[in-house]
Structures are given as structure tokens and as C-alpha cells.
Design goal:
The chain is α+β, with helices and mostly antiparallel strands. It contains 29 helices and 19 strands. It has four domains: about 180 residues, no CATH class; about 180 residues, no CATH class; about 130 residues, no CATH class; about 160 residues, Methyltransferase, Cobalt-precorrin-4 Transmethylase, Domain 2.
């Protein structure tokens, strides 16, 4: 289909974008690259469409009328089509609002002589008529003859050869709307679910859509209004100073519904519909606002710009959602805040976000003291105490700077210039600024510039920063620090102390700049540690290693995986020989140092679950455990079955597995096995590495003598 036909079909209500598609997010560079490819007739990708008479919810004001018959839905390629619509039609396509065009690609200019593309630059283009707004060409506001006249009016002579080049290049741009855009279609018989699945598959292999965006597309398949409802909430939060992306909403839903942070496909299935809407109602009306208000009122966080990673809020949201607002005590809240601070300065979510959320949400859901345990886990990775050396060379991007702000606010610190408190009720725009105490312009002249990396880092260090209001920062001049700080101390005697600035005046001299930094590092480290310590007391809890981590570490002399108790995955039927394999492993652990056997996990650590075993026993975990204990009673006796093993059932995601823990046995355990003639043979097994090995008679006797004294 030609580009101009595609755009006309959009205007004629024949081609639509579904509601589950995201906003226009292309950058101007993307638009420039697309036009450059079209001019040169390079491949530009394809458009994937779905023709259907049962479309999903559509973007825009127009509503589908069944009398219209089949319409086409754009499943892939809408960013390219939107770019072309904006540049060629010079208006916003009907399926978008102006607010959904995050980066308007219009204003793109082309040099007809060279076909170079640039966004408007006055110094480059004002005196050169060969630069033309590409949209003016498409809109026929600038024609080829207009270009030639404009060049001639400048007194520039054009040779016949040059005129031919200009003509060919102009035509290459002008003819873009007539270029064929490759269209691929999925069958009209495809269901709405199948169409969204195809959208997911097409996009999941690329890098443009996040997993959260793809999950949202699936959610929109069974809840068409979801995207708009979530965006409305995000706008409300943004007005209050907390700017989140749609990913944040998806992580919250995944956390409260499935108690995980990684597998977003859990939200894809329509079975989520009712419970997801119920969860969202509670998140929207109660939980998220409560968490934001706690941050603002008790953690001194006035804007999301002060937060290093907003995803630290997800475990807090899950905690509040599960516990209930009315059940939270002052101590609960203080522990939450203390952990939140440490999650920021110790960069808990700077990498491996989904996996860390899995672990932390799991703790929040199962632990009686979750934030004590979460804080202890941070301590295991990094020391909690802040040392003076941590400030060396770090700039305002470091999370310690956010902690400085929160600490200063807790002390009712004031702006050095206005004397106003630095606590601000902020809206969309962040309204605090940070300024050099020793002005950079002066430091730069004294060797603290980009030519010396170490000294430049010292000039930008957060210990050379003060928190000011925006108005104050604009008024502040580049005074020498000694004059500036003297003025501050005279006008507002407490201001320096409240922002932990050394008050020894000799340190304010330029020649003592590095000594000033050294002293302030020590002062800040002490003050920030005190600030954190005084929030509340937390306990060092003994934490068990989560089952997910054990499985991830793989099999060992203390851990073994078995796919099932009695279901053969190869033959897809009950296989009682597998029960002997389980008993062999149990006896080997007991004859050794003890260990854990996990049923429902294959050798490589993939979680399979127990559903097949449950079905084979016509029941669930109760029938499974009863059958297993009967096997143990029959094989090893009731004493061992009741004292030598413990059986627990664990849920990973929504998949149930069984963990059998064996203590170190106090007597040898034998297993009777039938030989080829049906005769019972007594066997003795021990652990050897990550396998269970049979010992021969001589080895067995020697082992038993040394092991069971």
C-alpha cells in the first residue's frame, strides 16, 4: 500500500490504532532516519495489520460501528506511520491526542542540494535557500520553481547540471508519499486474543517495547480502558510531584497479584480480569496515594526527582496493600522509611531489577518483620554505615545527595539566600536547586577544570554543594566562598549548621578548598549516620535462603532436584519406578550429612510443579503427602518417616513444589530393590557430589563403621 493511501485511510476511518498501543515515543533522530531511508529508497520495515469486524478498543474519539464491516488495525509500524502522518499532513492523526505526541517530529528541513536532513538551525539555514521545511514540500507550499527562484534571488548562478541535481533531489522528497509501504496481514479470522498475542510476539523480540508495555497490551485485550485509566492516575501523581512510568503500575499489579517482579506474562491471561480490576481499585483509591503521602510527610521526599530508583516503592506498595492501612503502626512506617533510605544509597535496584523485586516482594509477603529482613539483606551486600570516603569525587547524581536533602529537610534547613525553608510543596516541576559553595567559575580558573579529572571531580563534589531555591540560585553571584558564607552567617546565623557546612572561617578561603571538603565529608558522614540510626531500631534477623536462590545455585551434595514423584515426562504416564529413585535419594541423604530433595524441578533448575503428580493421585498436596509418607513408612519404617524427614510445600510464582528435608541419620538406611528375577536385594546409597551412589559390600561395611559409631 502506498504511503499516501495509508494516511488517507486513517482520515477516512478505515485504518486504526488499538488502545493497547502506546503513545508516540519516537525521537527526532528516528524521524530523520526514516525520511533519509525513504529518500534513498532503503528498506524501512513493514506495517503489520489485522482486518477484523470485531476490533478491540480503538485510540481516538471515533467508535466502531458494526455496520461499517471490517476495518484494519495497525499492530506494528504505528510509530513510522504516525511520523509520516505528522510530516506529510502537518497535523496530529485522529487516533492521538496532542499530549500523546511526546516528541513532535515536525520542523524537519532538507537541503535540496545535498539531501542532508536537519532540524531548524538559524545560523545554518537563514541565508541558504536550499534548506526547505520538508512538510512545506509535502503540503505544496514550496514547489521546485519556488526553490530555483529563491536561489536566483540571492544572486546565485545555477548551472544546468546543478539545476538537474536540485530537480532530481526535490522530486525524491516530493515523491515520498507515493512510495509503497510493505504491508503484512494476519487473517481476518484471528480472534482478538490471537491478534494481541501476535503483537506481543512481534514486539517481544525487539528493544523498543519494554516487557511492561507488552504486558499492558495483553491487559488491554481483556480490559480495553486499562491504559487510559492508568495514565489518568499517573497524571494525577505527576501533578503532585511524583512522576512514574506505566512500568511502575505494572510492577505494582504484578507484585500485589502474583507476589513477583519478573514474570510479567502472569498478567497476560484473561483469568486476571476480575482480580486485576479489584486490585487496581484498591491501589488507585488507597494504597499508592498513601505510600506517596508517607514519603512526603515522614521521609521528606517532596518530588520523585529526589528518588534514585522509584521501584523501591513497589515492595512498600505490596506491604501496605497486604497489611492494610489501618493496621500500620508508627514503628512499621519508620522501618519502611529506614529501609527505603538504605535502598537508595546502597543502590538496591540499580541492576537486576526484576530478580531483586522477586526476592524482596517474597520477603514482604512471607516475613513477620519484612523490612528488618530486607535491611539485613542490604547489610549482607554492603556496609550500612556511610564513610567519609564515599563522598570523594561523587556528584549530585549520587544517591547520597538525595539523602543529604532529606536530612537537611528533617532539620528544617533554610535557603542561604532567602532564608526560606527548603521543604517545598512541589508540582510537576522540581523547585529546589543545588549550587557550588566555592563557585565553579573561580575553581576553574585555579586548575579545577576538565583538564584535570581528579580536581574537576572535587569541584563538582556534593560536599561543595548547598540546597537553594530556584529564585535564590538565579540571584546568587559568583562570590568567593569566604565572602558568600560570611554573608550567609550574618543574615541567617543557623543556616550553615542546618546544612552541615563547616563554620571555621579559615576553611572558607580558596587555598583551603580541599581541606574544606575533607572536613565536610566527615561532618556529613556523622550527621547522616545519626539521621538514619535515629529513625528506628531494626533487628538483625536470621534469614533463610529463599528457595528460588537455592534452586538457582543448582544441585550439590546437599541439594537434589527431581522432576516428579511418579509421572514420567518422556512417556507422559505414571511410572512407579520413579518412586524408587526418590527413595534412593532420601536414603542417600540420610546415610550422609542430610540434605534437601526438591520434587517438581528438573535437573537444570526449571520449575515444573506437581500438577501431573496431583492428577495421578486424583487430588492435591494432601494426597501427594499421604502417598509419599506411606512409601516412607513401608520402605524405611514409621520411626524414620516421622522423625527423619520433614515435608513442606512451597510456591514459586504460582507453581507448587515439594521440599523434603532429611536430617543426618543416626543409623544406616537400606533400600530393598527387586532384581531381574523379582528377588529383593538390599542396597546402600550415599551422596557423592550431586548424585546418589550405591556402595559395594566392602565399601559399605567400611563406610558404616566410620559413619555410624
Amino acid at each position: 500500500m502506498k504511503i499516501n493511501q495509508i494516511l488517507d485511510k486513517v482520515d477516512e476511518n478505515q485504518l486504526f490504532v488499538p488502545a493497547f498501543q502506546r503513545e508516540y515515543v519516537w525521537k527526532r533522530e528516528n524521524a530523520k532516519d526514516l525520511i533519509a531511508s525513504l529518500i534513498r529508497k532503503y528498506p524501512t520495515g513493514t506495517m503489520l495489520t489485522w482486518e477484523t469486524n470485531s476490533p478491540p478498543e480503538l485510540k481516538g474519539k471515533w467508535r466502531y460501528d458494526p455496520r461499517q464491516g471490517a476495518v484494519k488495525i495497525i499492530l506494528d509500524g504505528q510509530q513510522r506511520i504516525t511520523t509520516l502522518y505528522l510530516l506529510i499532513k502537518d497535523k496530529i492523526p485522529p487516533y492521538y491526542k496532542e499530549s500523546e505526541i511526546l516528541k513532535d517530529p515536525r520542523g524537519l528541513y532538507v537541503n535540496i542540494g545535498t539531501l542532508e536532513l536537519q532540524y531548524y538551525k538559524p545560523t545554518l539555514m537563514q541565508s541558504d535557500p536550499q534548506w526547505v521545511n520538508i512538510t512545506d514540500i509535502f503540503q505544496r507550499k514550496t514547489r521546485e520553481r519556488d526553490l530555483i527562484r529563491a536561489i536566483q534571488d540571492k544572486g546565485i548562478e545555477i548551472s544546468r547540471e546543478e539545476e538537474d541535481i536540485l530537480s532530481d533531489n526535490f522530486r525524491a522528497v516530493e515523491n515520498i508519499p507515493d512510495i509503497e509501504f510493505v504491508e503484512q496481514s494476519i487473517p481476518i479470522k484471528a480472534s482478538r486474543k490471537e491478534a494481541i498475542d501476535i503483537f506481543y510476539i512481534v514486539n517481544s523480540s525487539g528493544v523498543n517495547l519494554t516487557e511492561a508495555e507488552l504486558a499492558l497490551a495483553q491487559i488491554s485485550g481483556y480490559w480495553p480502558q486499562a491504559r487510559e485509566i492508568f495514565k489518568k492516575k499517573l497524571e494525577q501523581l505527576k501533578d503532585d510531584g511524583f512522576v512514574f512510568k506505566l512500568d511502575f503500575i505494572i510492577y505494582c499489579l504484578l507484585g500485589v497479584l502474583h507476589h513477583i517482579g519478573s514474570d510479567k506474562t502472569k498478567l497476560h491471561d484473561k483469568s486476571n480480569d476480575k482480580k486485576l480490576k479489584e486490585a487496581w481499585k484498591k491501589l488507585d483509591e488507597e494504597v499508592i496515594d498513601y505510600v506517596v503521602n508517607v514519603l512526603r510527610s515522614q521521609a521528606y521526599v517532596d518530588h520523585s526527582d529526589e528518588i534514585n530508583s522509584v521501584y523501591a516503592l513497589v515492595p512498600i506498595v505490596v506491604y501496605v496493600y497486604n497489611k492494610g492501612i489501618s493496621s500500620l503502626t508508627e514503628v512499621n512506617i519508620k522501618k519502611v522509611i529506614k529501609w527505603f533510605y538504605y535502598s537508595q544509597i546502597r543502590q538496591r535496584y540499580i541492576s537486576q531489577l526484576p530478580q531483586k523485586l522477586d526476592k524482596d516482594i517474597g520477603i514482604v509477603v512471607r516475613s513477620e518483620n519484612p523490612f528488618d529482613e530486607l535491611l539485613y539483606n542490604i547489610k549482607l551486600e554492603r556496609p550500612l554505615d556511610i564513610s567519609p570516603d564515599e563522598f570523594i569525587g561523587v556528584d549530585i547524581r549520587n544517591a547520597l545527595f538525595s539523602l543529604m536533602r532529606w536530612c537537611f529537610k528533617s532539620k528544617n534547613a533554610i535557603c542561604f539566600t532567602t532564608g526560606n525553608g527548603i521543604r517545598k510543596n512541589m508540582g510537576k516541576k522540581y523547585s529546589l536547586e543545588w549550587d557550588h559553595i566555592f563557585p565553579y567559575s573561580i575553581l576553574k580558573e585555579n586548575g579545577y577544570n576538565r583538564n584535570n579529572r581528579h580536581k574537576y571531580a572535587l569541584a563538582q563534589e556534593i560536599t561543595n554543594r548547598a540546597i537553594l531555591t530556584q529564585i535564590a540560585n538565579r540571584k546568587k553571584s559568583n562570590k568567593l566562598a569566604e565572602n558568600y558564607l560570611k554573608d550567609v552567617k550574618q543574615k541567617f546565623p543557623s543556616a550553615l549548621k542546618l546544612q552541615i557546612v563547616p563554620e571555621e572561617e579559615k576553611l572558607w578561603k580558596l587555598e583551603n578548598f580541599e581541606q574544606f571538603l575533607e572536613i565536610r565529608r566527615k561532618m556529613l558522614a556523622k550527621e547522616l549516620n545519626n539521621f538514619l540510626d535515629k529513625i528506628t531500631t531494626t533487628e538483625e534477623v536470621e534469614t533463610q535462603i529463599p528457595i528460588e536462590e537455592l534452586i538457582a545455585e543448582g544441585e550439590s551434595d546437599e541439594l537434589e532436584f527431581k522432576s516428579s514423584l511418579r509421572w514420567n515426562y518422556k512417556t507422559e504416564q505414571i511410572d512407579k519406578k520413579l518412586e524408587i529413585v526418590i527413595l534412593k535419594s532420601i536414603s542417600a541423604f540420610s546415610n550422609g550429612e542430610g540434605g534437601t530433595l526438591i520434587i517438581g524441578v528438573e535437573d537444570e533448575g526449571k520449575i515444573l510443579g506437581l500438577d501431573h503428580d496431583y492428577s495421578s493421585l486424583n487430588g492435591g498436596k494432601d494426597e501427594f503427602e499421604l502417598h509419599l509418607r506411606n512409601l516412607l513408612n513401608k520402605t524405611f519404617g514409621k520411626v524414620f518417616a516421622t522423625t527423619g524427614v520433614s515435608i513442606t510445600f512451597l510456591v514459586i510464582g504460582e507453581t507448587e513444589i515439594c521440599a523434603i528435608n532429611m536430617s543426618k541419620g543416626n543409623k544406616a538406611l537400606y533400600l530393598d530393590i527387586l532384581d531381574n528375577n523379582g528377588q529383593k536385594i538390599e542396597k546402600f546409597y550415599v551422596r557423592s557430589g550431586n548424585t546418589s551412589q550405591e556402595l559395594g559390600l566392602s565399601e559399605m561395611n567400611e563406610y558404616i563403621k566410620s559413619r555410624f559409631k
